[in-house]
Amino acid sequence: MSLGWWFSVALFSVSMCGTPGPNNVMLTASGALYGYRRTLPHIFGIMAGCFVLFMAVALGLGVLFERFPLLQQGLKIIGAVYLLYLAWKIAIAPPPDLTAKEGARPLTAWQAAVFQFVNPKAWVMGIALIAGFMPASGSLLANALVLSAFMEIVGFFCISCWAGFGMAIGKLLKTPRAWRIFNGVMGLATAACVGFIVS
């Protein structure tokens, strides 16, 4: 694993984790509504889910999609439906001063982790990561652990920026009407990510 290899994986991680997608849109909304600290379980859930997914791909789970295309279609349908549900929840979320009264809360670590297995961008990242950067020599398990862990470390800073961006936006929203507009826009943006799934 040369310095060039580490640099290439870092660039790949930034390009994948730092660009818009279902996770980052939801993190922006969560950061705005709940702040960065309350969004941390969501962030760690994304990381945990992606790590398990990347390891599974490295150890051969990705082959199932090639052999059983219906499995991939089923995951796409589940992912699309769940994403639309999340989009609706984001769109109707009340302003922060009403949140406590209505019992709203950010996505849990478990929910965020499970979502990665129906998130097509996570699958694309995992398959591209393993196919493009897995060292040809050495222990398969050790290489997969190092590669997946390194991408998670870089990814943490990228997705944290989205939550921080949302938190900064949240400080600019001063009225309930502004919050309703923001939540509606974020809900629509989340729903639009269904296009990534069904395409």
From TrEMBL:
* One BP term from GO: cysteine export across plasma membrane
Please state where this protein is localized. Cell membrane
- Name of one Pfam family that matches: LysE
GO CC terms on record? plasma membrane
Positions of transmembrane segments: 41-65, 77-94, 122-146, 153-173, 179-198
Which InterPro entries does UniProt cross-reference here? LeuE-type (IPR001123)
**Record's keyword terms, sorted:** Cell membrane, Membrane, Transmembrane, Transmembrane helix
Where is it chiefly localized?
Answer: membrane
- Per the record, the coiled-coil ranges are none
One GO MF term on file is: amino acid transmembrane transporter activity
How is the protein disposed in the membrane?
Multi-pass membrane protein
Q: What is this protein called?
A: Lysine transporter LysE
Q: Which organism is it from?
A: Salinicola socius
